[in-house]
Structures are given as structure tokens and as C-alpha cells.
Amino acid sequence: MPHAMPNAVKRASARSATVTNGEMKRGLNSLASIAVTAPFIGFLGTVIVFFGSFRGIGSEKSALLISWAKALPESLVPSALGLAVAVVPFYFYRYLSARLESFGIEIKNASLELVDALANFPTRRWL
Fold it and tell me: Model's pTM, two decimal places?
């Protein structure tokens, strides 16, 4: 039964790596959610501001064009803010995901080295 110990160490290190990886990925979903929803919220703000500018306008075409010309730059501000808010969490999500992936590879390599070292470790039998 000399191979039982390395197999037990492999299983224990795999469990530990899985738990550690799950704990480190805990906040990444929040970053991804912010990065995905912020542009849509900005676009919603754009639509609300743009259509809100048409209140109180009569049926004259010149007033409509003037109102539209004023509302267009104002209505793009929420979209720009939504995109600006989304860029930062997206950057950190990508950065942290890449770091966690490389860290997971390092953990697997270290556990394999440990198993190899334990497999080659001489055992003594006391009589």
C-alpha cells in the first residue's frame, strides 16, 4: 500500500485548491454584473432625457427641431457615464480572472510537485 498516501494527498490538494479557487472568485460575479449593466442603465437614461425634452412643445416644427437639437447632447451624457462606469469593473474583472487562472495553475503544479516528492520519499519500517 505504498501508493495510498500520494493518492490521498492528490485528493486533499485538489479539494483544497477547489475551495480556495471558489473563495477567491467570490466577488468576480459582482464586477461582471456591474460591467454588463452600467451601459444599459446609461442608455435608459439617454432615452428618458431625450424624450423628456419633448414635454411642453407645441405642434410647431421649428420648436421641435430646436428642442431636439438641445436634447441630443444632453441625452448622450448618461450613455457616456454608463460606459465610463462599465470600463473600470470590466478591466478589473479581466485582470483578476487572469490572475486567478495563473494562480490556479501554480497551485496545481505545486501540488503535483508535493505528490512527486512524497512518492519518492523513502519510508522506514520499524520492526
Answer: 0.68
